[in-house]
Amino acid sequence: MTTLLALDTATEACSVALLHDGKVLSHYEVIPRLHAQRLLPMIQTLLGEAGVELSALDAIAFGRGPGAFTGIRIAIGVVQGLAFALDRPVLPVSNLAVLAQRALREQGVQQVAAAIDARMDEVYWGCYRAEQGEMRLQGVEAVLPPEQASLPRGATGDWFGAGTGWGTYGARIAVQPAGQDGGMLPHAEDLLQLARFAWARGEGLPADQAQPVYLRDKVATPKAAP
What we know:
Elements: E1 4-8, E2 13-20, E3 23-30, H1 35-50, E4 59-63, H2 69-86, E5 90-93, H3 95-107, E6 111-117, E7 123-131, E8 134-144, E9 160-162, H4 164-169, E10 179-181, H5 188-200
Parallel strand pairs: 1-4, 4-5, 6-9, 9-10
Antiparallel strand pairs: 1-2, 2-3, 6-7, 7-8
Pfam families: TsaD
Subcellular location: Cytoplasm
Family: Belongs to the KAE1 / TsaD family. TsaB subfamily.
């Protein structure tokens, strides 16, 4: 049986989750600015509850962003430390995808427009559709002004708005969701679920490839007008 640890500190929420013997345990706290102090104790508590040693882990999954720069770095620092020490692979997972997966779990929605407040009058934006229980990206993830957020080309049906981007900028987003939760934050339980799919596909990476995705570092240069 696969044993996976998942952790996330990319937003105000700090959470960890463990898959062992087919069972899932998780801890979740909304503790802005306390992630560095709480993450390792949360991991130790979770492993203790499950009666699992660190050496039993097959891989470690983490929220690779987008989100708060400092929070993402905290997660990556812990993940790399554990993965190097244990010689285990890592599984980077998008925090926008984690939001969408949480909306699927809690709301049963099949299409999600995930938005995280990116500050600086922008949102991190990604649209996802459920495919055999896994939220898969439709189009690309981006950081942009709320007014520029849009559904994928050819999108139909109802979409659910999930994430703090909706809470802060919902009135400025042109998309009209069938429902929304503007306070939803990523949860390691849903990160773990996405990691299970990735692990089954053989997508584990060496520890040194545990890298953040900030999106702001990947802004495309506009094409010159013809």
